[in-house]
Design goal:
Elements lengths: L3 E3 L5 E6 L13 H20 L2 E8 L12 E11 L3 E11 L6 E14 L10 E3 L3 H22 L7 H11 L6 H4 L1
Parallel strand pairs: 1-7
Antiparallel strand pairs: 2-4, 3-6, 4-5, 5-6
The chain binds guanosine-5'-diphosphate.
The site of guanosine-5'-diphosphate (GDP) has 11 residues, from strand 4 and strand 5.
């Protein structure tokens, strides 16, 4: 008998004040620091949903839409949008608020695939999803589409690995790249 769990049971919110020690040379928050927070919340959401230890299997798209300044309050929100047999796709939204003005900007949305594991490292089955809103159905279907697009991407190697064909294409469509050493 399959166990069903709601999206709500996976929801996590994490807020963190951005300190000078998190900034790079130009005073903006390091992308790597943000990625680390995203990985933490993805882990927390997937662990909460599955009730087990989880590892990150892949990260789908990380676009830094707006830079984050020192002193801003960053809020990450995460939920499980889709489940496979042992995997969960966790969606994460990152917003940053200027505490003085109250203005909030959207900084990032990413989708992490997490795998449930037992203590010995073997994969574990995860609960089935119970969807209870239109938004959850849309996010589920978007995740399913993303997964099938990724499978297609993995399956196709440009020009099926044929270097001569690849170089002919490079010469015509990417003529600004020096491939002299290869074509000689
Ligand atoms: P969407 O995926 O097209 O809805 O894009 P968004 O940028 O709005 O959100 C990205 C992901 O962050 C969503 O797919 C959710 O998994 C998660 N998320 C967004 N809003 C919330 C929220 O209010 N609470 C929680 N827990 N997660 C959220």
């Amino acid at each position: 008998m399959a166990t069903y769990k709601t999206v709500e049971s996976s929801e996590i919110t994490l807020s963190q004040l951005m300190l000078p020690s998190h900034s790079n040379f130009s005073g903006k928050i390091h992308g790597g620091y943000l990625l680390s927070l995203m990985d933490q919340i993805a882990f927390a959401s997937a662990s909460k949903f599955s009730g087990s230890y989880c590892v990150t299997a892949s990260v789908d798209r990380v676009d830094f839409l707006n830079p984050i300044e020192v002193g801003e309050l960053v809020t990450l929100k995460a939920s499980v949008n889709y489940v496979g047999n042992t995997s969960m796709m966790v969606g994460i939204r990152v917003d940053a608020q200027n505490i003085q003005t109250g203005i909030i900007k959207h900084c990032n949305s990413s989708y992490f695939t997490m795998i449930a594991k037992d203590e010995s490292g073997a994969t574990l089955p995860v609960p089935r999803l119970q969807l209870t809103s239109r938004e959850q159905v849309m996010r589920y279907l978007k995740a399913a589409e993303r997964i099938s697009a990724r499978k297609q991407r993995i399956a196709t190697e440009p020009f099926a690995g044929d270097l001569a064909k690849a170089l002919a294409f490079m010469a015509s469509d990417h003529a600004d790249v020096d491939i002299e050493a290869l074509s000689a």
